[in-house]
Specification:
- By secondary structure, the protein is an alpha+beta fold.
- The chain has two domains: 2-92, no CATH class; 93-216, Helix Hairpins (Orthogonal Bundle), CATH 1.10.287.
- Helix content is 62%, strand content 15%.
- It has five helices and four strands, in the order H-E-E-H-H-E-E-H-H.
- A four-stranded antiparallel β-sheet has the order 2-1-4-3.
- A hairpin with a 2-residue loop joins strand 3 (64-74) and strand 4 (77-88).
- Helix 4 runs parallel beside helix 5 (159-208).
- The longest helix has 51 residues, at 94-144.
- The radius of gyration is 50 Å and the shape is rod-shaped.
- The termini are far apart.
- The relative contact order is 0.06.
């Protein structure tokens, strides 16, 4: 039986598996060792096992090396067995670890970019909201001081702010109209009062100068 084993092929498969983190041990049907990774290169096996443990500890994943035996069957007859030792329940290869690190870095960058965009967007939105409010406050202050000609230019698409600006503009327009009406009424009243007073004054002057005789 042992003469039928292709040891070069077994060696190639064993070394390929070893670099992937799997330590193989091949036995024939009499349980005689055909190929053993640890016997072939104990130093390399120890190095690979140490690297795997270090990677998993760095990733904060717990586990340990375990071995499982599988029978090799050909034409219904057992021709041997293979013992596979590996870090369980799972482990990261070097390429897996690099991929995970790259993915984590990418996700962190995406998160930071999203945070920066949200901050900038928030500042822009806040500016769009506070600017009309500040203008409305300034207009209200001027109205309170008697400047009824003030008007606010509507430069917002926010309905609530549009309503506020419209209300202040209507208020200032109404107060301006009332002020004009008050001034007109004052002028009219003054005119109406001035006419009879002027007439009385003229009569008094005429009587003082003797032009008119006072009557009783």
């Amino acid at each position: 039986m042992t003469k039928t084993w292709n040891k070069e092929y077994i060696h190639a498969v064993g070394m390929y598996s070893l670099y992937d983190g799997y330590i193989l041990k091949i036995l024939d049907h009499n349980n005689q060792v055909i190929w053993d990774a640890e016997n072939h290169d104990m130093t390399l096996c120890s190095q690979i096992m140490s690297d795997i443990i270090a990677r998993m500890e760095k990733a904060k994943k717990s586990g340990d090396f375990d071995s499982h035996t599988f029978e090799l069957v050909q034409s219904g007859q057992k021709t041997g067995s293979v013992i596979i030792s590996y870090y369980g329940p799972y482990f990261y290869s070097e390429s897996d670890f690099r991929f995970i690190n790259a993915l984590n870095t990418f996700l962190i960058c995406i998160g930071l970019a999203a945070f920066a965009v949200s901050i900038i967007t928030g500042l822009l939105l806040a500016r769009r909201i506070t600017r009309p409010v500040s203008r409305a406050a300034e207009a209200a202050k001027r109205i309170s001081k008697g400047d009824y000609a003030v008007r606010i230019k509507n430069e917002t698409n926010t309905r609530e702010l549009e309503d506020l600006i419209s209300a202040i503009n209507h208020l200032s327009a109404a107060l301006e109209d009332q002020e004009k009406l008050r001034q007109q009424l004052t002028a009219d009243v003054a005119h109406e009062l001035r006419t009879p007073l002027t007439s009385v004054g003229s009569h008094l002057e005429a009587m003082i100068e003797g032009i008119w005789e006072p009557t009783t």
